Amino acid sequence: MIKGWIRTTLIDYPGQIASVVFLGGCSFRCPMCHNTELVLHPHTLPEIPSETVLEYLQARKGKITGLVVSGGEPCLSPDLPGFLREVRALDIRIKLDTNGYFPQVLKELLRENLVDMVAMDIKAPPKKYAQLAGMKSIDLDRIQTSIALIRESGLLYEFRTTVIRDWLTVEDIAVIADWLAGIECYVLQQFRPQGCLDPAMNHLAPYSVQVLQEMQVIASRKIACVQLRGV
User: Fold this and answer.
1) Cα atoms in the Cβ-side hemisphere of radius 13 Å centred on 29
2) Closest by alpha carbon to 38, among 80, 1, 78?
3) E-strand stretches of 34-155
4) pLDDT digits (tens, 9 = 90+) for 25-43
5) What does pTM read for this prediction?
6) Domain extents for the chain?
7) Is 2-229 CATH 3.20.20.70?
């Protein structure tokens, strides 16, 4: 299940000193993804026993206060709920990174109080979603259901979009802002042209900070808190 592990981070979970675990496998094939091996070839990566992570968290209880569960797509793993129950027993706060394509899993995690924060990727406006997710087609109802679950959860959350030059325009961000109008937090992430699942992406220049700031202003008309990340 666990294919990667950052033992300590100060930047991946707001307000927490955290560890990050990366679960293998994903339902999407986003061309800009930087976790290519996790997505395409998780079986080739050595498995890190969940017990090893749990022992680490137990030994550093009070110093490590949060765990980020990322991927790939964590909700693909049938072992995820059981692992989170064990983390919760250690009184560690849990942040889930997800693409939102498994709302039923997300619903159960929320019902069991197994997460404290959710960060969901919003790949694109609806008409471009399949393209930016690297899919021939996509069930947008699943995305919409996850958005609603997160908004209504009462938890800390963020929705975030990686902004790729020419693939996503200022107008596209305006459409996404209309779609997400009223959410608490939206993050526009700068695209990094390196190590992408689609090698052609590695030759794309990122947008300038000025363009990202223009997008931020436009999104702020519908969303109270819009942040730039990676600039």
Assistant:
1) 9
2) 1
3) 66-70, 93-98, 117-121
4) 999 999 999 999 999 999 9
5) 0.95
6) 2-229
7) yes
